[in-house]
Amino acid sequence: MLLILKNFLKSIALVPSVLALSFFGFAVLLTTIRIEYEHYTFFKALIITDAKDIQFVIAYVIGGIFTLTIFSYTMVMNVLNRNINNYSPRLIPLLLSEKHHQVILGFTSGTIVYAMVLSVALINDNSNYFPAIGAALAAIFAMVCVLLFIYFIHSVSKSIHINYILRELFNQTVKQMQKRAVEYGEKIDYNKDMPFDHELYSDTVGVLRLFSIKNVKKIVDDYGIKIQVNKRCGDFIYKDDVLLRMDKKLSDEQLNRLRALFVIDHEVAVDVHEIGFKHFVEVAVKASSPAINDPGTSKSCIDYLTQLFIYRCGLPFEGKHISLFDTRICLRQIDNSTLLVKCFVEMYRYMKDDPLLSPTLQKALLTIQNKSGHTLNLDWKKLRDYERLM
Hints:
It is a single chain. The protein has helices spanning 2-10, 14-32, 51-86, 92-96, 99-123, 134-159, 162-184, 213-223, 252-259, 273-287, 295-312, 336-351, 357-372, 380-389, and strands spanning 187-188, 198-201, 206-208, 227-229, 236-237, 242-246, 264-265, 321-324, 329-332. It is α+β, with helices and mostly antiparallel strands. The chain has 2 domains: 11-160, no CATH class; 162-390, Pyrimidine nucleoside phosphorylase-like, C-terminal domain (Aldehyde Oxidoreductase, domain 3), CATH 3.90.1170.30. Strands 1-8-9-4-6-2 form a 6-stranded mixed sheet, covered by helices on one side. Strands 5-3-7 form a 3-stranded antiparallel sheet, with no helix packed on it. Strand 8 (321-324) and strand 9 (329-332) form a beta hairpin. Helix 10 (273-287) runs parallel beside helix 12 and helix 12 (336-351) crosses helix 14. The protein is flat, with a radius of gyration of 27 Å.
């Protein structure tokens, strides 16, 4: 139950659901609390008491907002379909996660819910009270929905441009790297001789989501143990895989509490910053294909990747294993050299014969080498060697 709640709080359904429930609660209060609005000068212009007029306004609002909502969904589906066909389906969560789109969906859904509650209250034979300003408020909400719909068209039209999407993906990946680096704190060298004799196995199958080091540290401190996380965030986990190793034996209750911190599900771990690198590679490769033939987008992806690698080399991600908090938490991660090979070999395979993109890849490698201050052990000749091996 707790896992379902956590997933809901992180999903795109949270904001629309909260707004729709807020409109429902407001409508219930409005039809329940008896107020004589005629006594207030401010509300006199909003008072509608004729039942037929009220029915007309409410029916107009419900029908109109339904139409706008359906049209909005159609536009969103067209945008998503275009991005799937042209670039990568991995970009869909990035588009859907924009809060202002969720607010617009929540407000339009809430307006429909509000109007429906009023319509039920109007035809209810057991109630002799109907708020005199209810219909006018429904009309006002409908006008706000129209304004939001205009903004929605503008926003969606902007968000379908691949340059905007790449910029948002770059910013998101940088923020994820910064956040993870802050969680690491002081890094200690990995000690391979530490006694991790007890194992915790995965009880499900799926992708390991990004876990909170702060929450893991709290459990480790409470139980007085040291742990080694055997899998990287974003890895696919098979059932009965070794998820953790520990230096002490724990009870079943303690193991379940520890296992609950490591969420494994079917969704792509978009909160893992290495996934952002992967998305850039996917878009670059597909844009360079003969079907799309968009070398400009591929070049933009390479430029963004270059800057991301330069930035990543300055953060504590250079080792495959790290230990935190006096070796109480040991983690596996993708080091910079391995990630560089994974990204550039994949792009080299598809772009090595392109007269524009091949020099761009060479320049990117030199730029990363010169500006990062790290020896990454990868050049153009080694790219060819890796490409033959893979």
